[in-house]
Specification:
alpha+beta, Heat Shock Protein 90, eight-stranded mixed sheet, elongated
Length: 702
């Protein structure tokens, strides 16, 4: 079929280290929008005494041309459909995945009009001594117009596959959709198949089971040895039901199914929009933690340990979820290309993970100061309960506290009447509802402590209070305001550095004068944060407190009372400063979100404008076609009327001519009886000859 050596089939399959990633390639083909399967069944069966792995979906099936592309190398024509982004990119998934699982695979695919069968078999190529990859393929059509050249392929399939007749092929194909049967499965050193099929409703990996028993079951994530567990997290937002050994996999929204969920944002320098990162604690086992990295809704790298998690000192039990559509996965979809973008993402994930690891215990300590048990050792329950409808496959959020659900759940069983029908759209998830990052009081407190050490002494935050005449002058309000502005400018600079992962730059941040100059430049250039007026209004409040201190000083308060008032004033100033910094940060996030929404609306508006112009142009063409068709229709009506009149006249003339000929024929018979010597065999009755003879006979008789 292609000028590729048969040895390439095995070499290509070795890119899959574990068999589950090979199965995922076959599941992706059913999930992609060109097939649109709602269910896929993965099962074990025995055919002619051989263990076989069977995968069957209820999608639209493949035509002969699409099956040819699937069995060839490098063909990928998958396109996005209704926000459903295809996973396949390279056109290599079926070949590498199926040959990783076994030496031989046969594909049955049925559409409404055809059933096609293709055989990708290393055993077949070895038996015929092929020098290049050959794939026998046949197509049966409902109208019986089959390809003549399929005869050789049919004989090859009967001889080198598990099926020896057309009846067996049709029986194995089943209903509309695609079925893949793989045999001569890969085996272990002791001759057993790589998979353990004796575990009821699951398929396990034998090698991983033995390793797990040696290292302890708690250390190995279940998804590494259980196909059911692996398929439950295979997609970030599952849209297809996976049935293994006859029992449906309970898919989970991994970004919503655990405890202490916190949504964070990160904007890489090479992107214009924010990337959502979700952190939370594993509710099942604290030993399973790391970053779950997805690409186009598909899991690429599970449990990636970053930063402090590598040494199991910090970040234990914390799972992060990120969808990296901006990265390029390797051809086996088990890793990402090791690029500068990937390394930057890992670095910033480490920073974000450290922040989450500090914030959650800090928040818990604030809520319960007496608690001494580490949060990773506390029994946790999921923050939210989500369930998928077995009919429409949409996800619904249930009230907290629900722990048991029936095997089959439908939208009509929802507690919320607003979402009690399959026709209702899904609820907006957190990413759509709120683009803000979770509050970080620990980080804010750390910054405040840093400012306290770096900034001036507390007495410099308020005007000098030694001269009573300063009470009537407002000249000292402006120095205080300028100092506050310096603090705010430096705070904003530090926030920006922290967000970009440049924590090491804290020690070399700009001084008060530089910060004030930067703030003024931002305001003058129109690119600043637009906080000047709001900042002045908020800063005036602590300045009023400073004036209170001045009033107390004028009343000759004691030195001890004066120190208490100054300490109270400093606390108030720092509190307002923290609130202002938080307000600035939130406003910046809201501004960025509004900008993103504006860009999206602009793009959408431009798209609608283009569509409107296209529709107008199309409407004009349709009107022109309608006019021309109307004129043509009138012309055809006239021609039809004329033809009907001509046909009517021709019919009448034909009837008269037929009657005259019959009359002449009868006269000739009568003349023949009276005059036997008269020979009329060669007379043309359509002419006037018989009329002339008749006249002569009548004249003679009379």
């Amino acid at each position: 079929m292609q000028d590729i050596s048969p040895k390439f089939l095995h070499a290509n399959s070795t890119s899959h280290i574990l068999p589950f990633s090979a199965i995922a390639e076959l599941v992706d083909n059913a999930y992609d929008p060109d097939v649109r399967a709602r269910q896929i069944w993965i099962d074990w069966t025995r055919i002619r005494g051989l263990d076989c792995l069977s995968l069957r979906d209820n999608g639209e099936g493949l035509t002969r041309a699409r099956l040819h592309n699937m069995l060839s190398f490098g063909f990928s024509e998958k396109k996005e459909a209704k926000s459903h982004i295809p996973v396949g990119v390279y056109g290599n998934g079926f070949k590498s995945g199926s040959m990783r699982l076994g030496k031989d695979a046969i594909v049955f695919t049925k559409t409404r009009d055809t059933m096609s069968v293709g055989l990708l078999s290393q055993s077949y190529l070895e038996a015929i001594g092929a020098q290049r990859v050959l794939v026998p393929m046949i197509t049966f059509r409902r109208d019986g117009r089959n390809h003549v050249e399929d005869g050789a392929s049919l004989r090859a399939i009967f001889k080198h596959s598990l099926f020896s007749s057309e009846r067996e092929l049709c029986s194995a194909a089943g209903q509309t959709g695609t079925r893949i049967i793989i045999w001569n499965l890969r085996t272990t050193t002791n001759g057993d198949t790589e998979f353990d099929f004796d575990t009821g409703y699951d398929i396990l990996i034998r090698a991983t089971i033995s390793e797990r028993s040696n290292s302890g079951p708690a250390m190995t994530p279940e998804s590494e040895y259980s196909l059911r567990a692996y398929c439950s997290i295979l997609y970030l937002k599952p849209r297809m039901q996976i049935i293994i050994r006859g029992q449906r996999v309970k898919s989970q929204l991994i970004s919503k199914s655990l405890a202490h969920i916190a949504q964070d944002n990160y904007r890489p320098s090479f992107l214009t929009k924010r990337i959502r990162i979700t952190f939370r604690y594993n509710t099942k086992s604290k030993e399973h933690y790391g970053i779950m990295m997805y690409h186009k809704n598909r899991l690429i790298k599970p449990y990636v340990k970053v930063s402090c998690q590598c040494k199991a000192e910090r970040g234990v039990g914390v799972i992060g979820v990120i969808e990296c559509n901006f990265l390029q996965p390797t051809h086996n979809k088990q890793d990402f290309d090791d690029t500068d973008k990937y390394r930057k993402i890992i670095h910033n994930l480490s920073i974000k993970l450290e922040e989450y690891w500090n914030e959650i215990p800090y928040k818990r300590k604030k809520e319960d100061p007496k608690c001494t048990v580490p949060i990773e050792d506390v029994l946790k329950v999921p923050d939210q309960v989500w369930v998928q409808c077995d009919c429409c496959l949409k996800w619904r959020r249930l009230p907290d506290g629900i722990t048991e659900l029936p095997d089959k759940w439908f939208c009509s069983m929802n507690y919320d009447p607003q979402f009690r029908a399959c026709l209702v759209e899904e609820e907006l998830d957190n990413e759509e509802e709120d683009q803000k990052s979770y509050p970080k009081p620990f980080k804010r407190q750390a910054k405040q402590m840093f400012f306290t050490l770096e900034k001036q002494t507390p007495s410099s935050l308020v005007p000098p209070l030694t001269a009573p005449q300063e009470l009537s002058s407002q000249s000292h309000s402006w120095p205080v305001l300028n100092k506050e502005r310096n603090i705010l400018a430096q705070s904003d600079t530090l926030v920006t550095k922290a967000e970009s992962g440049m924590m090491e730059g804290f020690e070399s941040h700009q001084g008060p004068a530089d910060a004030e100059e930067t703030c003024e430049k931002d305001a003058s250039s129109g690119t600043g944060r637009g906080y000047s007026s709001a900042a002045e209004e908020i800063i005036e409040l602590p300045l009023k407190n400073a004036n209170k201190v001045v009033v107390h000083h004028e009343g000759h308060v004691d030195d001890e009372e004066e120190e208490e008032e100054e300490e109270w004033n400093l606390t108030e100033v720092q509190q307002w400063q923290d609130e202002l910094m938080e307000l600035m940060h939130e406003t910046a996030e809201e501004r960025d979100v509004c900008r993103q929404e504006l860009e999206v609306l602009r793009e959408h508006s431009a798209t609608l404008e283009d569509e409107r112009d296209q529709l107008i142009s199309r409407l004009e063409r349709v009107e022109e076609e309608k006019t021309s068709l109307s004129a043509l229709c009138d012309q055809l009506k006239r021609q039809l009327s004329e033809l009907r009149e001509q046909s009517k006249r021709g019919k009448e003339e034909k009837d008269d001519s037929s009657e005259l000929r019959t009359l002449r024929l009868n006269w000739s018979r009568l003349l023949g009886s009276f005059i036997p010597s008269l020979h009329l065999e060669h007379v043309n009755y359509s002419s006037d000859v018989i009329d002339a003879i008749l006249i002569q006979v009548l004249d003679h008789i009379t």
